[in-house]
Design brief:
amino-acid biosynthesis; binds the ligand O=C(O)C1=N[C@H](C(=O)O)C[C@H](O)C1; NADP binding; alpha/beta; cytoplasm; Rossmann fold; elongated; 6-stranded parallel beta sheet; binds NADPH dihydro-nicotinamide-adenine-dinucleotide phosphate; 2 domains; 244 residues
């Protein structure tokens, strides 16, 4: 299968190019960076996009106009953006887009376990920790985890986590995503890490995932690349591709 990488010179783009080139069944036909002509990518059946939240929607519009499938790891997907893509996909029959906030197997499992556990604990908070060159906060993984946990909590009849704070320095309690507090650490030496902390009377549960190297994302990226031609429309997350 012929593959193009958008954001090829970036951290994830470089790792993706290496992974595609190392695969017997995939052929890297274009490396596209900001300002490059995308024309060489018209030879691809699948585009991998690891660019920037400000660039990704335009890139995907281009893919749809050219009938090219896409595997997208770039963050910044709001419900509105996903709805825009669903509408655009109706004009591009047969084309598939897979978007995942995190392609590492451990992170996919961490999100699933956190969602399962969320219904059983009165308190829940998320701490995400990343390298200091990351453009966005909170991370896409933390936002996705918080939304899934919040939905599970609501379904279980739980309200917001108990919190008697009345006086705080602004930001001390982090951001809130669907009523779940999310704390973002940016630290030289880190790659991508997340801890979900849950608490009930007399016990806590911590679910932690660490990506120490960007190779950790590649099995998930390649599984999505191989699957997307058979997945017309929008697929969010790779759980179904991994058979979870
Ligand atoms: N889903 C997942 O598993 C993962 C997702 N990510 C996400 O992937 C994204 C990229 O992360 P990372 O690789 O660390 O970032 P980098 O900044 O290292 O790389 C982004 C690259 O995209 C290029 N770029 C920007 N705009 C365009 C465009 N319009 N067309 C083509 N290339 C473009 C940049 O070029 P220039 O510098 O010249 O602007 C840069 O080379 C982020 O949103 C990040 O959160 C990261 C890791 C895992
Ligand atoms: O920018 C990163 O590095 C990462 N971005 C994704 C996110 O925002 O969740 C995935 C992973 O955490 C690494």
């Amino acid at each position: 299968m012929d593959v193009a990488v958008f954001g090829a010179g970036g951290r994830m783009g470089q790792a993706s190019c290496q992974a595609v080139e190392a695969s017997d069944d995939l052929n890297l036909v274009a490396r596209i960076d900001s300002g490059d002509d995308r024309e060489p990518a018209t030879a691809a059946q699948v585009v991998i996009d690891f660019t920037h939240p400000d660039a990704v929607m335009d890139n995907l519009q281009w893919c749809l106009e050219h009938g090219i499938n896409a595997v997208v790891g770039t963050t910044g997907f709001t419900d509105e953006r996903l709805e825009t893509l669903r509408e655009s996909l109706t004009q591009a029959p047969g084309v598939g887009i897979v978007i995942a906030a995190n392609f590492s197997i451990g992170a996919v499992l961490m999100m699933k376990f956190a969602e399962q556990a969320a219904a059983f604990y009165e308190s829940a908070e998320i701490i995400e920790l990343h390298h200091p060159n990351k453009a966005d906060a909170p991370s896409g993984t933390a936002t996705t985890t918080a939304r899934r946990m919040a939905a599970a909590r609501t379904a279980a009849g739980l309200g917001p986590s108990p919190d008697a704070t009345q006086h705080e320095v602004p930001g001390a309690r982090g951001a809130t995503v669907d009523d779940i507090h999310v704390h973002s650490v940016r630290l030289r030496g880190l790659v991508a890490h997340q801890e979900v902390q849950l608490g009930a009377e007399g016990e806590t549960l911590t679910i932690r995932h660490d990506s120490y190297d960007r190779v950790s994302f590649m099995p998930g990226v390649l599984a999505a690349v191989r699957a997307v031609p058979q997945l017309p429309g929008l697929t969010v997350g790779i759980e179904s591709i991994l058979g979870l």
